[in-house]
């Protein structure tokens, strides 16, 4: 603990001994690419992280299993269609994505807290905010990365199905139209679910709470609305089925694809949306995305540093 | 040239005033920012990084205004936070490369600079392991590395020695010293231990309650505060060894004070000796040897920040108790004189 007073004024000779194995500090004179490059780097790093790339082997397991879980059934569907010489795929592109909802729920519950909550929990956000990016850049990069990750998971089987349909020489026009409708559906689906999940995950630095919150919000309203729709269908109030569809992300998506993207309705009785309900559901989707994003941005005005 | 300049900088929160009309100029070199918890150190750093707007007054870093050029400042400044900030499942290399890119370095340069910087802070093979398994000392090194990786002109280090054992502390302080002497990067380092900064810094700024208490070169500080604590054993010939040594030293013309406060354990047995020149150390040794007393300890006093505020009489050579009172108003003037002298 005691120190000689001479250490307060280091002698040059002592300096030399300190740096025997030091080959010297090199200054960096190269280019500095600034804010937009940093934002892009954060996007890429977060997207890679969603699939466990650049992280431990353990963290690759779940995303990869889920990616396989969404893609393998698609491959099987395709194989069966080819083998049986079917004249169309047994499932439409958007409908297939809807069938994946439970898997995507698990994927979001695993990835969103990892991408968002952990920076809060390990207090890494101050390191980001002490760099050229602004808080808005951080939010944009994280949201874009989560949306992209969800899109990859749901668009992969859509691509597989389309490739299979082409191999099976199904009708090119029909399949291409369905494929693009499927991709549009994937984009909207990813944007909505990523916005909800990112906001929920950002509310808590605890990963467990984030996982629970995402699962609850994606499932409970969906089951509730589906049950109410079934009751409404029993009582023959057809318009109520459509209105209830506005009440949960899952039913909103179902209504969207059956109304606008040529899919078959998954609602009880196979009812679709009326025109007014369709327009309103688009508005609700847009409002949910914008609202979640605004809340997420507001959250980061206070969180971190 | 000044790296940091603030002009009556204030930051008020609804219930607290974190900074109160702070005017200070910081020149290149290693500068210590000392203050108790809640003195406004971290608030000042946030304002300097352009992350928190000042309530009034202005500040500039590397000649750029913090209120309008925050992004440009952050490109040229490194920041090491006080708290833990490392994700545990990523390796130091992966993490620092990512942080380098976040500062705008192209991918190849980011990899090269990361390898260089981690070596400079003393991380070798372990840099490929996940950081969750690192010791506190290694984590502090990674935190320092991420602040240096983009070759900033200035680094802001918030309590870099927090949680380190004495050896780790000395290593970190030596490393901080090297950041300036070998790397040519100016450093602003905060601490609540003044003694620690005395050994590392060229200049020390003391703030308390958001106000500037003192800003002076370390030489001034050590002159005013250098003190040696000595404890000796009692012998049969000298039943009260402490008193005997005191008499002998005072006879040799050395200023000695006992610890009257009695707060510290064994306080009654400690003698505080004001060190005016190196020969004082010899005088203490010779006096103890002549009396045949065992020297239990002889150590540089580690000054806590509180002592600067209270100016305990036994620490200062000449000033009277009231001296510090009329000294304070003069301080800002002294600072300006000093910085203008540095320009020349």
UniProtKB/TrEMBL annotation, chain A:
One of its GO terms (molecular function) is ABC-type transporter activity. Pfam families: ABC2_membrane_2. The keyword Transmembrane helix applies. Keywords: Membrane, Transmembrane, Transmembrane helix. It comes from the Bacteria. GO terms for cellular component: plasma membrane. The chain crosses the membrane at residues 61-83, 103-122, 143-167, 179-202, 209-232, 276-296. The keyword RNA-binding does not apply. This is ABC transporter permease subunit.
TrEMBL record, chain B:
The keyword Nucleotide-binding applies. Residues 308-344 are annotated as: Disordered. Transmembrane segments: none annotated. Gene3D superfamilies: P-loop containing nucleotide triphosphate hydrolases. Residues 4-234 form the ABC transporter domain. The keyword rRNA-binding does not apply. Residues 314-344 have a biased composition (Basic and acidic residues). PROSITE patterns: ABC_TRANSPORTER_2 (PS50893). InterPro entries: AAA+_ATPase, ABC_transporter-like_ATP-bd, P-loop_NTPase. Keywords: ATP-binding, Nucleotide-binding, Transport. GO terms for molecular function: ATP binding; ATP hydrolysis activity. Belongs to the ABC transporter superfamily. This is ABC transporter ATP-binding protein. It comes from Streptomyces boncukensis.
């Amino acid at each position: 603990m005691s120190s000689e007073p001479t250490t307060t004024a280091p002698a040059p000779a002592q300096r030399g001994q300190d740096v025997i194995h030091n080959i010297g500090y090199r200054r960096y004179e190269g280019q500095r690419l600034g804010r937009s490059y940093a934002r892009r780097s954060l996007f890429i790093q977060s997207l890679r992280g969603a699939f466990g790339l650049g992280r431990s082997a353990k963290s690759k397991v779940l995303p990869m299993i889920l990616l396989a879980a969404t893609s393998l059934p698609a491959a099987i569907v395709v194989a069966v269609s080819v083998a049986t010489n079917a004249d169309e795929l047994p499932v439409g592109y958007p409908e297939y994505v809807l069938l994946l909802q439970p898997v995507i729920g698990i994927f979001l519950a695993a990835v969103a807290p990892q991408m968002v909550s952990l920076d809060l929990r390990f207090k890494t956000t101050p390191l980001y905010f002490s760099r050229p990016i602004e808080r808005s850049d951080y939010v944009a990069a994280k949201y874009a990365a989560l949306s992209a990750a969800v899109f990859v998971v749901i668009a992969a089987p859509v691509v597989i199905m389309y490739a299979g349909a082409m191999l099976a020489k199904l009708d090119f026009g029909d399949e291409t139209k369905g494929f693009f409708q499927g991709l549009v559906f994937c984009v909207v689906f990813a944007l909505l679910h990523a916005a909800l999940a990112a906001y929920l995950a950002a509310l808590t630095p605890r990963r467990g709470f984030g996982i629970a919150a995402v699962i609850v919000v994606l499932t409970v309203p969906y089951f509730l609305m589906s049950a109410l729709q079934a009751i409404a269908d029993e009582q023959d109030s057809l318009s109520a089925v459509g209105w209830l569809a506005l009440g949960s992300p899952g039913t909103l998506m179902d209504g969207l694809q059956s109304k606008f993207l040529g899919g078959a309705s998954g609602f009880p009785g196979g009812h679709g949306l009326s025109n007014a309900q369709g327009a309103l559901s688009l508005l609700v989707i847009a409002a949910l995305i914008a609202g979640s994003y605004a809340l997420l941005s507001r959250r980061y005005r206070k969180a971190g540093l | 040239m000044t790296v940091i300049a603030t002009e009556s900088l204030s930051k008020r929160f609804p219930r607290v005033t974190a900074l109160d009309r702070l005017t200070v100029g910081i020149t290149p070199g290693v500068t210590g920012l000392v203050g108790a918890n809640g003195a406004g150190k971290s608030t000042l750093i946030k304002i300097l990084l352009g992350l928190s707007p000042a309530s009034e007054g202005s500040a500039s870093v590397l000649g750029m205004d913090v209120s309008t050029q925050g992004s440009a400042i952050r490109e040229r400044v490194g920041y090491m936070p006080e708290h833990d900030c490392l994700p545990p499942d990523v390796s130091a290399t992966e993490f620092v490369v990512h942080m380098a890119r976040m500062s705008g370095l192209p991918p190849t340069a980011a990899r090269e600079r990361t390898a260089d910087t981690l070596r400079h802070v003393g991380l070798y093979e372990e840099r490929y392991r996940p950081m969750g398994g690192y010791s506190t000392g290694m984590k502090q090194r990674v935190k320092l590395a991420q602040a240096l990786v983009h070759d900033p002109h200035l680094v802001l280090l918030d309590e870099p020695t927090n949680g380190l054992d004495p050896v780790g502390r000395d290593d970190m302080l030596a490393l901080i010293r090297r950041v300036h002497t070998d790397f040519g990067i100016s450093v602003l380092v905060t601490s609540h231990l003044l003694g620690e900064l005395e050994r590392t810094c060229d200049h020390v700024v003391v703030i308390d309650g958001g106000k500037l208490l003192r800003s002076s070169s370390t030489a001034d500080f050590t002159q005013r505060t250098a003190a040696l604590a000595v404890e000796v054993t009692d012998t049969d010939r000298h039943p009260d060894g402490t008193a005997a040594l005191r008499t002998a030293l005072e006879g040799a013309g050395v200023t000695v004070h006992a610890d009257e406060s009695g707060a510290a354990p064994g306080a009654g047995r400690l003698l505080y000796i004001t060190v005016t020149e190196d020969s004082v150390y010899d005088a203490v040794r010779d006096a103890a040897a002549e009396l045949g007393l065992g020297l239990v300890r002889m150590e540089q006093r580690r000054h806590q920040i509180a002592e600067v505020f209270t100016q305990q009489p036994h620490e200062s050579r000449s000033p009277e108790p009231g001296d510090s009172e009329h000294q304070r108003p003069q301080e800002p003037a002294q600072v300006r004189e000093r910085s203008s002298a540095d320009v020349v």
